[in-house]
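Subject: sequence -> structure tokens, single chain

Hey, anyone have a minute? Need the predicted structure for the following. Not urgent.
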Amino acid sequence: FAISIYQLAVGFPIPIILALMLNEIRFPRYKKAVQTILYAPHFISIVVMVGIIITMFSPSIGVINTIRERLGLERVYYMAQPSAFRHLYVWSGVWQGMGWSAIIYISALSAVDIQLYEAARIDGAGRIKQMLHITFPSILPTVVTMLILQMGQIMGVSFDKVLLMQNAATYEVSDIISTYVYRRGLEGSQYSYAAAVDLFSSVINLLMLCSTNAISKRL
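Reply:
Had a minute. Here:
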């Protein structure tokens, strides 16, 4: 839950903000170049992504520790720090997925009626007011839909990435239901028990999805 809520709190609004920022770019070529650069990390495989994280934060050759050393600080083995695991997991995921997640919001923004902006400019509204009173309200239904879908995956932390990133030192904060099911089911041969645990997480996802949908309808 800690990883999922952290990921939702950070990873959900950033693509929206990114889409709003890209929508304000008035130079088509520059806009396309920025979009392409932001989309690219999505196509990096999880294995390569974790390899990049391990290399960057390596205590011996990592660029982060090299910078720390030049600033007069000690080298730190971040991958063995329980306090660093969630931050590394979440923020690397945000960097990898924010460009791709912004696509749906950019598509929604393209459907906003241009006449609304023209009327707002005649009434004296600047770009910030246009964004607050036209752009964001126009994509709010899409935002709510995406939030409902995200809440339906609240227990679905990436098994592959966690398994590749975790080690004995970070077990207390990196162990999730998927890795627990993997150990009990495949390694411990407790197939029925592991299936029951996995079903339980799916029930929680369903409850969260239905609850969020009901709240959104009321609001």
